Amino acid sequence: MAESVMQLQDVHTRRDALALGLALGCCGSGAQAQTSPPARNLRPTAGDCLVRAVGVSESAEALRPDDVVSAGPQLLAWAKEPASGVVRDGSRLNQILLLRLDPETLDAETLARAANGVLAYSATCTHAQCPVTEWRQEAGILHCPCHGSEFDPRGGGRVVGGPALRRLPPLPLGLSAEGSLEVAQPFLGKVGGQVA
Ligand code: FES
Question: What is the number of other CB atoms lying within 10 angstroms of the CB of residue 23?
């Protein structure tokens, strides 16, 4: 009998410890949570600057319009929180593509979201989430190499070919007081693929 009572108390103790762990949100990952700032995972936020996605570090220079090659190809970038230096590379859905195009060739809505001719879109294909890495300069089309979806950057990222059903979400840009590119608004629309 005494042994049964002790076993029961032991079960209660373990249950209480588990409940406490869940309440604290730790379950063995508390240290990891502290070393993985949530800001890394947040989508680009108004006021963020932009840095190159390749070889990126917290000391990376904020991109300026002239850093983006005129008429393509696209440059892949991450947003960076200026105050903390945190680069928002914690999710591949945060990746951004930048293009610099002649402002006179952009439709009115796209022009309003551009900064000195630089446009930003989600770099993640809205079909099945491959990176949109190809630029067909003659056609002026962004091309996803996985299944051939195509998007018109001058027309708000609309789908012009392939299996994708949704446009590439635009990311409105502005310029900081120092003349570097900065995020003006969050992505317009859902980022990610059709199953995300
Ligand atoms: S993932 Fe881009 S076309 Fe399928």
Answer: 8
